Amino acid sequence: MQNEGAVRMPDEVEMLAFFGAEPQQRAPSDGYWSYAVTDASGTGLRLSFDIFERSVQVVLSLHGEESATISHEGLAALSLYRTNTNSVLIAEMLSADTESRLQIEIDPRIRVRWSTLLVR
What we know:
By secondary structure, the protein is mostly beta strands. Helix content is 7%, strand content 56%. It contains 1 helix and 9 strands; from the N terminus they run H-E-E-E-E-E-E-E-E-E. A hairpin with a 2-residue loop joins strand 4 and strand 5. The chain starts with 11 loop residues before the first helix and ends with a strand.
């Protein structure tokens, strides 16, 4: 099921609280934001998303060297939720036959999970 409505997302204050930093780049009139953070072990994460193009990208690095780039189209929503120990950012991507989910935790260490399921 494709989502044709607006991308739901947290406001910039909520994103600031999650990342602990202002966006590295932002162009709200273009629907684009990019956030970067590095944890104590040297693992880096750059999350960028475009709500008009409905895309999200994660770049992972270790001690400044990029190790993985993952991009996905069909962004439907970004949301934040709090567990007992930390906050989690969720990105949901929808297409005609798949539902994908990205989960990001940054405290106490960066952790990223991607999953895609076929739907019919």
